[in-house]
Design brief:
alpha+beta; six-stranded antiparallel β-sheet; four-stranded antiparallel β-sheet; 10 strands; globular
Length: 509
C-alpha cells in the first residue's frame, strides 16, 4: 500500500467552530476530565474496601486527597466554563441549566458530599457505608457526564463533537460498572465499618444533614435533566424542563445547606461547643442587618423576593461566621494552613452565593434600536451610540460599534461590542462589549442591523456578577491549600475508641 498525498495542500483548513476559538475552551475540557477521572481512584478504594471486607480511618485518609484533588479540578472546569459562556456566547448569563452543564454539576455535588463523608469517616469512624455508596455513584455520574457530552442523546449548545457509537460504549461501560459495584455492595453490606456515637447537634450530625441535602439536590438535577429523554423514549410526547423547575427545587435546598454551614464554626466533634451568646448572635445579626440593607439599597422594582432576601442574609451570615472569629488573636495564632484552606473553601461558597443572589434578583436589562448619536437610559447609566467601524480580523470580518456610558454626568466606560462573520464557517457571532467591575458589569450585545447605521442591542447591568467566579477561585484555592497542608497518617495513630478493630497501618496501603 502507498499513500498519494496531494501537493500543494489547501491554503486554509475548515477552521474551528467560532465558539471554540477561545483560550477558555482549550483549558476547560481537560480540567473537567481530570476531575472525572480522578474519582476513579475513590471508586477503586471503595471496591478494595468491599473486597477486603473492611473500611477504616486509614482507607478514608488515603482516599481523601484523591477526592479533594478531583473536586478542585472539577470546580475549576465548571467555573471556567461558566466564565467562558458569560463573555463568549453573548447572552449575558452564567448558567443555563443546560444538560451538559448539569452533567458536570452532578458529580460535583456528590463529590462534595463524598469529601465531607470522608472527613467524618477518617476522624470519627462514622458514615463508612455512605463513603462506599458516594464513591460508587460519584464516579458513575462522571461517566454519565461523559456519555451526555459525547453521545448527543440530549440537545445542548455545548455539544461540539457528538459520536453516538462512543456514547453507546460509555453507556454499556456505565451499566456494567454500576451493576457490578452495587452487586458487590449488596453482597458485602455487612462490611466491618467503624461505628461512633455522636449527638445530633454535633459536627458529625451537621455534616450528615449536609451530605443528605447534597444528595437530594443531585437527585433533583438528575431528574430534571433526564426526565424529558425518558418521557420521549416511552412515546409519551416531548417536553422540556427548564430553569423554573431547577430554581424552584434546587435553590431552597441550597439555602438550607447554607443555613447549616452558618453553624459550622461553633460545632465540635460529638457535641455542641459551649459558647457565649454574643458569639453566636453576632454573625446572625450581621447577616440579617446586612442582607436587609443590601436588598433595600435597590429601587422598588429591583428589590429581591423573599428568596433573594434569604440568600443575601445567609451569605453574609456565613461570611460573618467564618471571619469574625479571626478578630481574636488566639484564633489567628491557631490558623494553620490546613484550617485556612477549609475557611477559604467555605468562604468561597458564601461569596459565590451572594454574587448569584445579586445578579439573579437585581440585574437590569433593556433592549433598543439605536443609531449614531442616540442615547438610551438603563437605571443610573446613560448609554450613547457614538458610531461604528468595520474590522478585519485574522479569519473574520466584523462591524464594531462604540458606546459611551455616563453616570451622574461623568463618563465611566466605553463599550465596543462586535458582530462578526466567519466566512469559512459561514457563521455570525456576537462579541459582547463588557465593562468589568468588582461591584458589577455593564454588558452590551449587538443584534441585527436594522437600517443605515442602526442596530438592535441588548443592554445589561449585572451587579456583583464577578463574585460568582471569585467564590469559585476561593473554593479552588481552599481545596489546594488543604492538599498542600495535608496531615500525615502515622503508623501508630490510634483508631477511634468505638472502632471494633485497629486501623490499617500506613505501609499496608
Amino acid at each position: 500500500m502507498r499513500s498519494r498525498p496531494e501537493f500543494p495542500g489547501p491554503l486554509e483548513g475548515r477552521d474551528l467552530n467560532p465558539m471554540l476559538q477561545d483560550i477558555g475552551l482549550i483549558i476547560h475540557p481537560p480540567l473537567l476530565y481530570l476531575g472525572y477521572v480522578g474519582f476513579a481512584v475513590n471508586f477503586a478504594f471503595a471496591m478494595a474496601a468491599l473486597h477486603s471486607g473492611r473500611l477504616d480511618g486509614a482507607v478514608a485518609h488515603w482516599s481523601r486527597p484523591w477526592a479533594l484533588g478531583s473536586w478542585v479540578f472539577l470546580t475549576a472546569g465548571i467555573v471556567l466554563g461558566s466564565w467562558w459562556a458569560y463573555y463568549e456566547l453573548g447572552w449575558g448569563g452564567w448558567w443555563f441549566w443546560d444538560p451538559v452543564e448539569n452533567a458536570s454539576l452532578l458529580p460535583w455535588l456528590l463529590g462534595t458530599a463524598l469529601l465531607h463523608a470522608l472527613v467524618v469517616c477518617e476522624k470519627r469512624g462514622a458514615y463508612g457505608h455512605a463513603v462506599l455508596l458516594l464513591s460508587i455513584f460519584t464516579f458513575s455520574l462522571s461517566l454519565l457526564g461523559t456519555f451526555v457530552v459525547r453521545s448527543g442523546v440530549l440537545t445542548s449548545v455545548h455539544a461540539f463533537a457528538v459520536d453516538p457509537s462512543r456514547g453507546l460504549t460509555l453507556l454499556l461501560l456505565l451499566g456494567l460498572l454500576l451493576t457490578c459495584a452495587l452487586t458487590l455492595f449488596a453482597l458485602r453490606a455487612d462490611i466491618r465499618a467503624p461505628y461512633a456515637r455522636f449527638g445530633l447537634l454535633s459536627k458529625e450530625g451537621l455534616l450528615g444533614a449536609a451530605i443528605l441535602l447534597l444528595c437530594v439536590a443531585c437527585a433533583s438535577v438528575l431528574l430534571g435533566t433526564f426526565y424529558p429523554m425518558v418521557f420521549q423514549s416511552l412515546h409519551l410526547g416531548s417536553l422540556s424542563v427548564g430553569a423554573p423547575y431547577f430554581n424552584t427545587i434546587f435553590v431552597p435546598l441550597a439555602l438550607c445547606l447554607m443555613a447549616l454551614m452558618t453553624q459550622l464554626p461553633r460545632l465540635r466533634w460529638q457535641h455542641l461547643a459551649a459558647q457565649r451568646r454574643i458569639k453566636v448572635l453576632l454573625p446572625c445579626l450581621f447577616g440579617l442587618l446586612g442582607g436587609t440593607l443590601l436588598s433595600l439599597a435597590y429601587p422598588e422594582p429591583l428589590r429581591a423576593s423573599w428568596l433573594g432576601l434569604a440568600a443575601n442574609v445567609l451569605s453574609l451570615w456565613l461570611m460573618a461566621s467564618l471571619l469574625l472569629p479571626l478578630l481574636q488573636p488566639v484564633a489567628l495564632r491557631e490558623l494553620t494552613l490546613y484550617r485556612l484552606g477549609s475557611l477559604l473553601a467555605h468562604l468561597g461558597v458564601a461569596v459565590c452565593a451572594l454574587g448569584i443572589a445579586q445578579v439573579s434578583h437585581h440585574s437590569q436589562e433593556g433592549g433598543a434600536v439605536l443609531a449614531a448619536g442616540q442615547p438610551y437610559r438603563l437605571g443610573a447609566f446613560a448609554f450613547r451610540y457614538e458610531g461604528s467601524e468595520p474590522i478585519i480580523g485574522p479569519n473574520y470580518t466584523a462591524e464594531r460599534i462604540t458606546l459611551s456610558v455616563h453616570k451622574d454626568g461623568k463618563e465611566v466606560a466605553r463599550l465596543t461590542p462586535e458582530r462578526r462573520h466567519y466566512s469559512v464557517r459561514t457563521m455570525n457571532m456576537n462579541e459582547p462589549g463588557i465593562k468589568w467591575g468588582l461591584l458589577g458589569d455593564l454588558y452590551v450585545v449587538l443584534g441585527e442591523k436594522m437600517g443605515p447605521g442602526a442596530y438592535a442591542m441588548r443592554l445589561h447591568h449585572k451587579p456583583l456578577v464577578r463574585w460568582i467566579w471569585l467564590g469559585g477561585l476561593l473554593m479552588m484555592a481552599g481545596g489546594t491549600l488543604r492538599l498542600l497542608a495535608r496531615r500525615p497518617l502515622l503508623a501508630n495513630h490510634p483508631a477511634p475508641a468505638t472502632a471494633p478493630y485497629p486501623r490499617l497501618e500506613q505501609e499496608t496501603l
